[in-house]
Write a structure and sequence with these properties.
Length: 400
Amino acid sequence: MKLSLLTKAIFTIVLLFLTENNIFAQTKYQKDFYEFWSDINKHYAYLERQNIDWNKVKEIYSAQAEEVTNDNEFIQLLENTLNELYNGHSSLSMNLNTSNRLIPSWSDIRIEKDQNKYLIKDLRKGFGAELAGLKIGMQVTLFNGVSIDEQLKSFLPRFTDYHSPKMYQYALDMLFAGTHDKKRVITVVENGERKTFEPVSYGNRNELLYYKVINENTGYVKINNSLGNNNLIGEFDKALDSLIFHKNLILDLTETPSGGNSTVGRAIMGRFVNKLLPYQIHEFDEKDYDTKRHWVEYVSPRKKIYKGNVYVLVGHWTGSMGEGIAIGFDALNRATVIGTPMAGLLGAISNFRLTETKIGFQFPTERLYHINGIPREDFIPKILCENIEETLEKAKEVAL
């Protein structure tokens, strides 16, 4: 009996020694990869809705983490892992020269697959692709001289053999956004003739917004990707005050791909309501207790209220908080939303930081809904358009 107890004690000590040795033997990259995977596993709000097999993802990429020897290789591994989430609302806080540009913030062209062809469906106004001469409707045949189909494989999720239309659209958006270190070369066929374009990628203009009087009836305000800058609130107030007596107001959110914060969003919407009203629903998983938490976010009136007709323009480059403002105006019954489907960025994001490498990353931890229960990413404008050109034409009609 004594020998048996001694044997068990020795076995336990050896087991603990081997376990601790295995933990200590892990590289900092292995430790951080498991932390990265675990944070997403516990907090990512859309694993179930997107049907992502996150355990399969761990199986695929943990083996690669064992081979990582430097920070650059690790960053590339994390970027590849984030592709498994196939949505532009998940990203790292740092990148390499070889990294892909973030979408939709750095994209300027919307390519969609139509049967066996890749067609330009939309262009970001005033950005590289449009300025280079590319046109809506052109058929794209090559990207950087290589077949499109072959290059999409780099961005498609590996946890499944079935790739949905949303997965393919994510891959297309990533591919045509390009990388930081290379010029983009886009080959098209137009009227049977092959042409090559080299659009330049660059950031947004510095002005927070632009506004003007279209005619005696209609004012126009365009937000220039500044919904994350609290200084926009004062600038918006000045613009709206100068247009307060116009019968119609066009609020252009087609250039808000990087989203922003709800303080700015609520401040803007607050100029259009005369009482406290709900504008969106939040949902959060409390996984430790198998419960869900729901709450409604409200808009409060502020300053002088604009009482005229409001038309909100949206598009493929309306992202995150821009999408929140659009569904908010719709929920408040204070505007007609005009445009294409929006960027479809999922939820509200939270920020995380890895212990060993100190690399920051962010992903959606809350699901967001229209007051009527429709997921924000599924919202369709009341006046649905094919592209930005059609959206602007519709805006001209309401400005009469």
